Amino acid sequence: MEFKQCLKEKASFVEKVLKEYMPKEEGYQKTVIEAMNYSLSAGGKRLRPILTLEACKIVGGNEDEAIPFAIAIEMIHTYSLIHDDLPALDNDDLRRGRPTNHKVYGEAMGILAGDALLNYAFEVMLAGSINKENPEKYLKAINEIAKGAGIYGMIGGQVVDVESENKQIEKEKLDYIHMNKTAAMMVGCMRAGATIGGANSEQMEEIN
């Protein structure tokens, strides 16, 4: 099977599973859930969840165990895109060929939808870790994702990107932005998947 076709099939699988994890649009919080699902269902390559599942499988694990983590990573990625599109940051009107979240639901709801996706991602991961034989393994996987998304990863890169806007910056700082704003979550999701799959220390080191 050609690589592009393989990637397309794996993305379709992620799309199918993602729908199962989307919160129901009901209750007083219905609007923010609609906003969450609007951006979650906007498509994309779904590379991060695919990498999570493949990393789990390649070290000999059961990729089904990594599904909640793969879905959570896509939720975290989506929250970052919603916030990135806001007027305070990139001020984008379109994302993946349709109006950005804040253009549809307003800035306040866009902020809340991003916040909600980040929190819901951890709900999904924790729910997928309860009553497991080796809970420490799942906690380590959650930690890998949290680090990749946090101040020593994606957020850290975003901060330097914001502070460097319209400035001439040195290559070292530019490398830091790329390694953290984008690559940190890629590494984090693979390390999380490999951890769930039971990777040994040498295999984990290879991911770095």
From TrEMBL:
UniProt keyword terms in alphabetical order: Isoprene biosynthesis, Magnesium, Metal-binding, Transferase
Cofactor: Mg(2+)
UniProt-recorded Gene Ontology molecular function terms: (2E,6E)-farnesyl diphosphate synthase activity; metal ion binding
Chemical reaction(s) catalysed: isopentenyl diphosphate + (2E)-geranyl diphosphate = (2E,6E)-farnesyl diphosphate + diphosphate
EC number from the UniProt entry: 2.5.1.10
First-tier enzyme category under EC: transferase
Keyword Membrane recorded: no
GO biological process, one term: terpenoid biosynthetic process
Domain of life: Bacteria
Membership in a protein family: Belongs to the FPP/GGPP synthase family.
Stated name of the protein: Farnesyl diphosphate synthase
